[in-house]
Amino acid sequence: MKKISLLGATGSIGIQTLDVIAAHPEEFKLVAMSFGSNYKSGSEIIKKFKPQFVAVKDKETYDHLKQELSGESVKIGYGQEALIEAAVFDGVEILVNAVVGSVGLIPTLKAIENKITIALANKETLVTAGHLVTEHAKKYNVDILPVDSEHSAIFQCLQGENVKSIERLIVTASGGSFRDKKREELVDVTVEQALNHPNWSMGAKITIDSATMMNKGLEVIEAHWLFNMPYEKIDVLLHKESIIHSLVEFHDRSIIAQLGSPDMRVPIQYALTYPERLSLPEVKGLELWEVGKLHFEKADFNRFRCLQFAFDSGKIGGTMPTVLNAANEEAVAAFLKGSIKFLQIEEFIERAMDKHVCIAQPGLEQIQEVDQRTRKFVQTLIS
Ligand SMILES: NC(=O)C1=CN([C@@H]2O[C@H](COP(=O)(O)OP(=O)(O)OC[C@H]3O[C@@H](n4cnc5c(N)ncnc54)[C@H](OP(=O)(O)O)[C@@H]3O)[C@@H](O)[C@H]2O)C=CC1
Ligand SMILES: CC(=O)[C@@H](O)[C@H](O)COP(=O)(O)O
Ligand SMILES: [Mn+2]
């Protein structure tokens, strides 16, 4: 029985992780969890899975949840300290980090210090401070197992392979909600249109990231850190069906790919059972004759400028990916609120990056300071 802590339990990845846990009650036990402020959904989960500890975002949510749960024996906390407490709760063996945004960084670092295996969906953590997280994981000899579908695919393709034989990683991209639109057609697109992803049902922030292709940019940086791969050896391939989740080319020109129906329960479960596999009867098997044609296109960096910014920031390194991530988080939140237009997301990210004087090899405090400063700068642009 593996003891699991789940951060972001009420979200898209969180709920699918709970599906996997519920499908194998003899294998997994949820002992701690967190969510932001959705106390209605949170209290349902708590009643069903009976974790021992729950962290919520703020005091207001804490008070609501206490009321919903009167009579239940569960310890509740709020704020960052509670989020850390949930991550390292007594006996936790795997932390599924499925919060959205760089708020996931500190709990990940603390869990690593406690020798807890990390199943990582929260890609912003690796983007904002990839060198700190990977150095920490090495120091404490802790595995970071990918949950993101592309990285799980690459990880699966690499099983039994010598990483020295890798020619390049090929990360596939659906192209998002606006993949068939020209750049000039993006001027007046709405939030509702942007949230309409063709293949995946996901949280709002990642769905917008997918529409700007920043999601793919974040994934390139994520792949750089997870697989210790130079940016020159990471390619992005447009593949609109999201059936091939990513590929690895080796020196002998052999390419290995991982395929499957677009269903996040597969990579989530693989991270929880690795190196074993368990059945997943609810996931639709893939019949390629049903799919028919698969399509591939070269990624156009002028059309998808966020992809270019992500490669640029990754290659510059230091605090530049922190700026990319913080500016993106603020701009996407503003777009979702209706305060800015779609194309202003990339405009504000570019302006934040242009203004930033990069710090090489930053420590945690410098990362946090740059993150906060960038958010304030973008908020000024928004207002
Ligand atoms: N969805 C997907 O299919 C995929 C997602 N990912 C990555 O996984 C992560 C989660 O994505 P997704 O599940 O879609 O996101 P959602 O928005 O659906 O869920 C986010 C979760 O985090 C909680 N949360 C939000 N803000 C805070 C905060 N400040 N403090 C504590 N908890 C917070 C939310 O709580 P509440 O509900 O109360 O607001 C919710 O439980 C992201 O990094 C994303 O990029 C990667 C691959 C695929
Ligand atoms: C399911 C998943 O891993 C997402 O990150 C997905 O990849 C988004 O799709 P695109 O960014 O390719 O549109
Ligand atoms: Mn992905």
Fold and architecture overview:
This protein has 3 domains: 141 residues, NAD(P)-binding Rossmann-like Domain (Rossmann fold, 3-Layer(aba) Sandwich), CATH 3.40.50; 141 residues, no CATH class; 67 residues, Rna Polymerase Sigma Factor, Chain: A. By secondary structure, the chain is an alpha/beta fold. The model has no long low-confidence stretch (mean pLDDT 97). The strands form 2 sheets. It has a 7-stranded parallel sheet with strand order 4-3-2-1-5-6-7, with helices on both faces. It has a 5-stranded mixed sheet with strand order 11-10-8-9-12, with helices on one face. It has 16 helices and 12 strands. The termini are far apart. Strand 10 and strand 11 form a beta hairpin. The protein is globular and about 55 Å long. The site of NADPH dihydro-nicotinamide-adenine-dinucleotide phosphate has 29 residues, from helix 1, helix 6 and helix 9.
Strand and helix map with partners:
Elements lengths: L1 E6 L4 H12 L4 E7 L4 H11 L3 E4 L2 H10 L6 E4 H9 L6 E4 L7 H9 L3 E4 L2 H17 L4 E3 L2 H9 L8 E8 L17 H4 L9 H9 L1 H13 L7 E5 L5 E7 L4 E5 L5 H9 L14 H4 L5 E2 L6 H12 L3 H18 L4 H14 L8 H19 L1
Helix pairs in contact: 2-3, 4-5, 5-6, 6-10, 6-14, 9-14, 10-13, 13-14, 13-15, 14-15, 14-16
Bound molecules: NADPH dihydro-nicotinamide-adenine-dinucleotide phosphate, 1-deoxy-D-xylulose-5-phosphate and manganese (II) ion (MN).
